[in-house]
Specification:
This protein has 103 residues and is an alpha/beta fold. It is built from three helices and four strands, in the order βαβαβαβ. It is globular, with a radius of gyration of 13 Å.
Length: 103
Amino acid sequence: MALNRERPHLLVLPEDDATRSIANGFIDATTGQMQVLNPVRGWPNVLHQFEVDHVIQLRKYRHRHLVLLIDFDDEYPNRLTYFQSAIPKDVEDRVYVLRHLPG
């Protein structure tokens, strides 16, 4: 089902197939106004795609909400702070960073 961009809706940008599987589990519980995007292979790519593509779309479609679904491991302990600092103030109330703890 296609999303109506003029109505409240949610996009999920997963880091990889594991996080996409988690997000797909939520689709059955929604009213069809949720879409899981293709994985972008790595948290740096999630951040890049968010900054380059999704910020523009969030500003264009005021009913859009976006979940950034990423793995958190010990390699980058400040990853959440890094993501939070990249979210512009004018869209921060519609962007959610969810972390998946592998293992």
